Amino acid sequence: MRSDNSEDLVLVYGQSEDGKGFDVLRRRQEGIEAGRLRALEEGKPVHGEVVRLKPREDSPALFDVEVHHDARASTGRPPKVATDQYRRGWESIWAKKPRAHALN
Question: Which residue, among 54, 57, 60, 73, has the nearest Cα to 9 in the 3D structure?
């Protein structure tokens, strides 16, 4: 059985204005917070936590939260995120190019 002080819960109450996420209320030991839930996108920075939500049987909008990564805990170094511009530059320099003719 869980104690009420250690529960980490999310209540989804609506879709975000841009339609790409969900507005949520989160209850954890620190209190109640309003936030936004978005899907991870490859190559894009994470602003907050990476979480897994497990739906509650008693309520379709209430979820238990499991934190997998907290991006707010800074390492003091810049994030290792490659932008589309960086990838295009990398490919233009290092991509294998077909040979125009065969070697002797």
Answer: 54
